[in-house]
Design brief:
This protein has helices spanning about 5-10, 10-25, 45, 50-60, 70, 140-144; strands at about 115, 125-130. It has about 140 residues and is mainly alpha-helical. Among the domains are: about 5-60, no CATH class; about 115-144, no CATH class. It has a two-stranded antiparallel sheet. It is elongated.
């Protein structure tokens, strides 16, 4: 497809937009309406936006304004000053009561202990069997 074929496929508005993009903002081609009963196409439809609308959208969407008050809060370190505790216990949920029931009995078996000897200092210890791993046990004193 050659460039001439491509330009022929464009509508009048698309041709004007292409011409505008190639030549710059200062060139405003005259666009005729396609139908006799329509008014000529306005600048807003043409793609150009008046300066008032442009500045409003830019300010709303992209501008970030710093205030001087935030700069004043950026100070050096300050000592923490103790203040009186202002919290008071209001005793919420007084309507909720705990029912009187028998306590659950402890059914868990006693932990299994294992007798081990420290391979560094030679002392004997009785420790939880789940903590014993490996062939050579070291006591807490010999580890650190």
């Amino acid at each position: 497809m050659s460039m001439d074929d491509f330009i022929q496929t464009l509508s009048d508005e698309q041709r004007a937009a292409l011409l505008k993009a190639l030549t710059g903002d200062d060139f405003k081609p005259e666009i005729q309406s396609r139908f006799q009963h329509e008014e000529p196409i306005s600048e807003a439809v043409d793609g150009t936006i008046d300066k008032e609308t442009k500045s409003k959208t830019t300010a709303e969407d992209f501008a970030m304004h710093k205030t001087n008050s935030t700069l004043g809060n950026n100070r050096r370190r300050e000592a923490v000053k103790a203040q009186a505790n202002q919290w008071t216990d209001t005793g919420e949920h007084k309507d909720v009561s705990t029912p009187d029931r028998a306590r659950t009995p402890r059914n868990r078996a006693a932990p299994r202990k294992k007798k081990v000897r420290c391979h560094v200092c030679g002392k004997d210890f009785t420790i939880n069997a789940s903590l014993v791993y490996g062939e050579y046990y070291r006591c807490d004193r010999c580890i650190g």
